Amino acid sequence: MCLEGENISFGYKRNNLILHNVNISLESGKLLGLIGDSGSGKSTLCKILAGYENNYQGKVSINGKEIPPKGYNPVQLVFQHPEKAVNPKWKMKDILNEGNNVSQYILDSFGIKQNWLNRWPNELSGGELQRFALARALGPKTKYLIADEITTMLDAITQAQIWNTVLDIVKEMSIGVLVVSHEKNLIKKLCHEIVYLDDINDV
Amino acid sequence: MGKQAEIIAEEKNKTEALLKVEDISLYFIQYASGLRQTELKVISNLSIEAYRGEILAVVGSSGSGKSLLAHAILGILPSNAKLDGKMEYNGQKLTQEKKEEIRGKEIAIIPQTITYLDPLMRISNQVIGCVEEKNEGLMKKLQRDIFQRYDLKPDVEKMFPHELSGGMTRRVLVSTAVISSAKLIIADEPTPGLDEKTLNETLSYFKDMANKGCAVILITHDIEAALKISNKIAVFYAGTVLEVANVEDFKNDGENLRHPYTKALWNALPQNKFQIINGQQPMPDEVIDGCIFYERCSKKNDLCSKGIPQFKKVNGGVVRCNNVS
């Protein structure tokens, strides 16, 4: 299985493309690193691949088939700032189970404690919130994970803990992961292959 | 005679800390249920010193109270916060009034996120801030120079915060401090989301500020970035400092590091062992009698569960651990 972006072009303003004819493919069970300068369009590409942005040219497909706009999206995006990806007025258990019931196994692997479920988002640290964001994104129907700087805001120990868990789960479920990060050392450690956005972008 | 006094004063300036934070504790007063109030201790018995011409890095996990320390120094804590302990700036007691008087002039902060910018105000106005009309032209020129140095194009001036990328925002936030003539710069996580080139550039500006005689406090969780430019590294954990180490101590397997937490932090880096230790930093509402790192420590003994270890001087650094000598 393969998630493919073909000839993707996109600009937030007319006549100002930030992505032009970008081709990228992500295989199941593989970790692909994406490196690029700040402002070069990495996050935009992530959003397009995960179906957050519709107004682009080109094609995003899984095994040649377009991703249906409704229902569970097999491509799940996790952002850099988990505190912006959760509803501040919901308790963590509601945030966690909004899309599907997250299994106890996933909760245990991320080390999510039972008493965290009754807390509000502002009562948890960034690392703890990011565990929730990943736990809910790694549902049984997820085939690809787009990890956009998911541990950039975290300390080294938490970063290692989170990636260790993610690696175990994606291996088990044969999920393909796009790892976006500025940290070359991290990407080298995690990924099978690395692409530089500048090399695949015609802008 | 006057000249001599000046020289003596200058000598004194060099050896005495510009900022001394002594044994501060910070509490948040919260309503528990109904009108019953509880105190949540988020910083406990914390001491640090910042010297002119030096960069002190403050590293540690998120939620360890690094940003709160910055807010405490600037006097911008929320109204339900209670601060104990002593702070001195340039030999004078740093009271709330004093903080309000000198912040933005003597002490500047480079804040952590874009949310510190006004979403409805154009970038250049925010960088320049409030100035007298006669200085406006001068400040405008200064701002343009700084933007050019930071590789921010002229059209960024007229933009609004939401139009900037993460890296651009960071450079704008750094400019706000560079434009002031502060002696003490507190940078709160200025580097995440920057690519390597911009990161090194940003770090070099902090080094510049230090070389010009400023004291810089660099709050970060990026040890690698901190090591590139800092003189000393204070390691934070759960609201207190566990170790103040020298940059040279961070090498190989971290055998020169003093505290088990610092070692674990060092060995968890992807370029080192990418090794994990189990558990989480304790929450502020979890009451712990002994060492704050007790639960996760590999070297703990009975003594560690009773009472907080006192600071000890070891090999040119300080550490809060019973098992180091």
Overall spatial form of chain A:
globular
Second rung of CATH, namely the architecture of chain B? 3-Layer(aba) Sandwich
Biggest interface between protein chains, with counts per chain?
A-B, 33 and 37 residues
How many structural domains can be distinguished in the coordinates of chain A? 1
Question: How many domains is the backbone of chain B divided into?
Answer: 1
Rg of chain B to the nearest angstrom? 21 Å
Annotated CATH topology of chain B: Rossmann fold
Structural class of chain A: alpha/beta
User: If you average the pLDDT of chain A, what whole number results?
Assistant: 91
Order of helices and strands of chain B: HEEEHEEHEHHHEHEHEEHEE
Tally of DSSP helical segments of chain B: 9
Count of individual helical segments of chain A: 7
Biggest sheet statistics of chain A = 5 strands, parallel
Q: CATH-wise, what's the superfamily of chain A?
A: P-loop containing nucleotide triphosphate hydrolases
Give the spatial strand order of the biggest sheet of chain B: 6-7-8-3-9-10-12-11
The CATH class of chain B turns out to be Alpha Beta
Oligomer: heterodimer
Shape type of chain B: globular
CATH topology of chain A, which one?
A: Rossmann fold
CATH H level of chain B: which superfamily?
P-loop containing nucleotide triphosphate hydrolases
How many beta-strand elements of chain B? 12
Describe the structure.
The complex is a heterodimer of chains A (203) and B (325). Helix content of chain A is 30%, strand content 24%. Chain A has 203 residues and is an alpha/beta fold. Chain A has one domain (2-200): P-loop containing nucleotide triphosphate hydrolases (Rossmann fold). In chain A, strands 6-7-8-3-9 form a 5-stranded parallel β-sheet, sandwiched between helices. In chain A, strands 2-1-4-5 form a 4-stranded antiparallel β-sheet, covered by helices on one side. Chain A is globular and about 50 Å long. The two termini of chain A are 29 Å apart. Chain B has helices at residues 2-15, 66-74, 96-102, 123-128, 136-149, 166-178, 196-211, 223-229, 260-267, and strands at residues 19-31, 37-50, 55-60, 81-89, 92-93, 107-110, 184-188, 215-220, 232-237, 240-246, 312-314, 317-319. In chain B, the strands form 2 sheets. An 8-stranded mixed β-sheet of chain B has the order 6-7-8-3-9-10-12-11, with helices on both faces. The mean pLDDT of chain B is 86. At the A-B interface, helix 4, helix 5 and helix 6 of A face helix 6, helix 7 and helix 9 of B.
